[in-house]
Amino acid sequence: MHTRAPTHPSRTLEPVQERHDAPLAPLTTFRLGGPATRLITATTDAEVIAAVREADDTGTPLLLIGGGSNLVIGDKGFAGTALVIATKGFDLDGTCLELAAGEVWTDAVARTVEAGLAGVECLAGIPGSAGATPIQNVGAYGQEVSSTITEVIAYDRHTRETVTVPNADCAFSYRHSRFKADPERYVVLRVRFELEDADGLSGPIKYAETARALGVEPGDRVPLAAARETVLKLRSGKGMVLDPEDHDTWSAGSFFTNPILTDAQFAAFHARVQERLGDGVEPPAYPAGEGHTKTSAAWLIDKAGFTKGYGTGPARISTKHTLALTNRGEATTEDLLALAREVVAGVRESFGITLVNEPVTVGVSL
After folding, report:
1. Which residue in 145, 73, 100 sits closest to 3, CA to CA?
2. Which of 13, 35, 272, 290 stands the most exposed, by the fewest C-beta atoms within 10 Å?
3. 168: which DSSP letter?
4. What is the pTM of this model?
5. CA–CA separation, 355 vs 344, rounded Å?
6. Could you give the residue numbers annotated as active site?
């Protein structure tokens, strides 16, 4: 099913689309960021590897771009080579699925649902490319890709070889993986999944909001199309499905990860909540492994005073969801970062918790 990339792919970049001083903003869902010194678009694994090797051989900084839905690029742009991974490939063999890194994720999810296979249907509508999903361990509405990924085929920039990384070696955790932990090492080329044939039914519905919307109990299964359509409707209501006409979707989706707290940290947080909001107010709390509790970043942001639509400048909180920071059309990256820093400071002051940004920052930081 998988054709290994040649050990020494051709170094020529003649067939590859190349531009200089190229705008990067149009390649991101935020529509923000300055230009790249050089922009290359690769449509095959061999082209991807050749471009990466050339950058490594010449000591040129390299920025990998897939769907651009998880990138915050500085206004000064990127002094180096930006590589757009535009590879294509959807290979379904029974319940085994292999996706090229450049495949549009939400389109791939739709095709698995059409094929009657469960496992990623609740990840519908998530913008970006398939190659980014293992890096971030993409998850939503009770599903994470780590539960269906069997292995990741990647180019290892240290060993200069194409490697196959089994799930057990991916070090998946909440919105994290070995690929995210060591971003300069691996370039994801292909991702393999093992899906489930449940006679046209979804996986067990785990997320309470989805179950309520479907009118079922958590743990029940529903027709695959119903699960996908319900998730798309829920996401759209929060401005989390891309729409060029809707500035609430000019974002990176959830800008902050949900904090995971130790028992001691949660107890201190709980006390701050009672003190600030009054006895009887209980913050969201979800089990997150022994001795740890996950709480809601959206709840923290809202209760700290940053409600939907907050802001007066060109970067504001979404009018549909407090977890999304948005570009209202004329924002700069600095406008966005100023808003993000204000939110982080406000939540820290109110509840003693420091929010962590989910998107990758390029040339800037909070």
Report:
1. 100
2. 290
3. G
4. 0.89
5. 6
6. 175, 254, 358
